[in-house]
């Protein structure tokens, strides 16, 4: 056999001279309106005001979980709730006075 000739790549690839930053995430929705008595309006929520204060919002937990998984992965509601509880317990643990 003779000299091997180099075959050019069939698909041209662009040269990356710089990376463009990702656009920032959209701002979070405004908090629900408070009623005149000073309590929270929970008509659309299944968590009590105390649980809402204790857990991170489900949307934030979902966004963090989605970033760690493949794009086509599905996350169950139960998994999101479990991670919410774990985050809450972790934050409570690291902020407790018992560590000192």
UniProtKB/TrEMBL annotation:
<feature type="region of interest" description="Disordered">
    <location>
        <begin position="1"/>
        <end position="57"/>
    </location>
</feature>
<dbReference type="GO" id="GO:0046982">
    <property type="term" value="F:protein heterodimerization activity"/>
</dbReference>
<dbReference type="InterPro" id="IPR003958">
    <property type="entry name" value="CBFA_NFYB_domain"/>
</dbReference>
<comment type="similarity">
    <text>Belongs to the NFYB/HAP3 subunit family.</text>
</comment>
<dbReference type="GO" id="GO:0001228">
    <property type="term" value="F:DNA-binding transcription activator activity, RNA polymerase II-specific"/>
</dbReference>
<feature type="compositionally biased region" description="Pro residues">
    <location>
        <begin position="22"/>
        <end position="34"/>
    </location>
</feature>
<protein>
    <recommendedName>
        <fullName>Transcription factor CBF/NF-Y/archaeal histone domain-containing protein</fullName>
    </recommendedName>
</protein>
<dbReference type="GO" id="GO:0000978">
    <property type="term" value="F:RNA polymerase II cis-regulatory region sequence-specific DNA binding"/>
</dbReference>
<dbReference type="Pfam" id="PF00808">
    <property type="entry name" value="CBFD_NFYB_HMF"/>
</dbReference>
<keyword id="KW-0805">Transcription regulation</keyword>
<dbReference type="GO" id="GO:0016602">
    <property type="term" value="C:CCAAT-binding factor complex"/>
</dbReference>
<keyword id="KW-0804">Transcription</keyword>
<feature type="domain" description="Transcription factor CBF/NF-Y/archaeal histone">
    <location>
        <begin position="55"/>
        <end position="96"/>
    </location>
</feature>
<dbReference type="InterPro" id="IPR009072">
    <property type="entry name" value="Histone-fold"/>
</dbReference>
<dbReference type="InterPro" id="IPR027113">
    <property type="entry name" value="Transc_fact_NFYB/HAP3"/>
</dbReference>
